[in-house]
Amino acid sequence: MARMAEIEKTTRILYNGSCRICNGEIATYARYAAKHDLPMWFEDLNETDLDDWGVTRSEAERILHVRHAGEAYEGMAAYLLLWGLMPRYKPLATLFGLPGVRQASTFLYNKVLARYLFSCTTKPRRTATRPRATLKP
Q1: Which among 2, 18, 76, 100 is most buried, taking Cβ atoms within 10 Å?
Q2: Who contacts 10 (Cβ-Cβ below 8 Å, separation ≥6)?
Q3: Residue 74's domain is classified under what CATH number?
Q4: Is residue 58 part of a domain?
Q5: Which comes out higher in pLDDT, residue 117 or 23?
Q6: For residue range 62-79, what is the model confidence (pLDDT) as tens digits?
Q7: Which residues pair with 67 in a beta bridge?
Q8: Helices 76-84 and 101-108 sit at what angle, rounded to 10 degrees?
């Protein structure tokens, strides 16, 4: 119970740890947050109860989710909030939050980047196989 009360005071970030690109990016933010003692809790969707988040696995895999001060953010809004809370990344939040830029970046994130990353984590991996030789009689 004490752990949940502590988590509620922090910013919670739900990310897809099975996505190599997502995991690498979030690991950078997690290291920065730890180094600067920022109250952030990073949760891999593969290791957390998604019912606590109110999202399905598919929704969690598709876009970034952040909870802050009792509010839920997703997609580009989640990134803008996350960047805005970390001094090093605040210029990104400012730039991508500008009128016009915000709408364009939201569109690109939702329609291009998030879909691409989701497809990378959901399609079966190809394995290098050689064609089988057929024996002729």
Answers
A1: 76
A2: 39, 40, 41
A3: 3.40.30
A4: yes
A5: 23
A6: 889 999 999 999 999 999
A7: 12, 72
A8: 120
